[in-house]
Amino acid sequence: MDERESIVLSYPHAFRLLLHLKNVIAASKQVSAEDELLKEVYRDSIVKKYEILEDQLWKLLSRIFKASGLELNNPRACYRQAFKEGWIQNIDVWNDILHSRNATAHVYNEEDYEQIKDRIVSQYVHEIEALLENIQKEVIDRDLWN
Asked: The organism sits in which domain of life (predicted)?
């Protein structure tokens, strides 16, 4: 499979992951405040889906940049390049997205974990959606490889 095929297949996968995350977030808002166990299950699901989505997202960017001749093999470099391309508007938010993603594996108290979940819901989903829309418009629709 060449880079173009890999990108064309990876983009819908990342977009589906985003939709799944948004669906879990929407469902979590329907849980009654008294149902602590269900709230915790939804929180954990939101964080896990976010982890998977963020991982797929930077790898998609890496493929896109590789197809244009840039070898970027880590999330920070991919996000910086996406910022340079104009696909990301606020690099500080993306640094926070990356920091939160790295922190999820090392969070040992509920309060920190809850704060990460809150940032995913209030800020990160919107930023990820905007990036995917820009990739759709600037890469997928333009078919830059022809």
From this structure: Bacteria
pLDDT in tens, 20-66: 999 999 999 999 989 999 999 999 999 999 999 999 999 999 999 99
**Among all chains, which residue has been given the structure tokens 């819901």?**
121
Q: Can you give the pTM of this predicted structure?
A: 0.92
Q: What is the DSSP string of the chain?
A: --HHHHHHHHHHHHHHHHHHHHHHHHHHTTS-TT-HHHHHHHHHHHHHHHHHHHHHHHHHHHHHHHHTT----SHHHHHHHHHHHTS-S-HHHHHHHHHHHHHGGG--SHHHHHHHHHHIIIIIHHHHHHHHHHHIIIIITTTTT-
- Separation between Cα atoms, residue 57 and residue 14, nearest integer Å: 6
Give dist(CA 106, CA 125) in Å, integer.
21
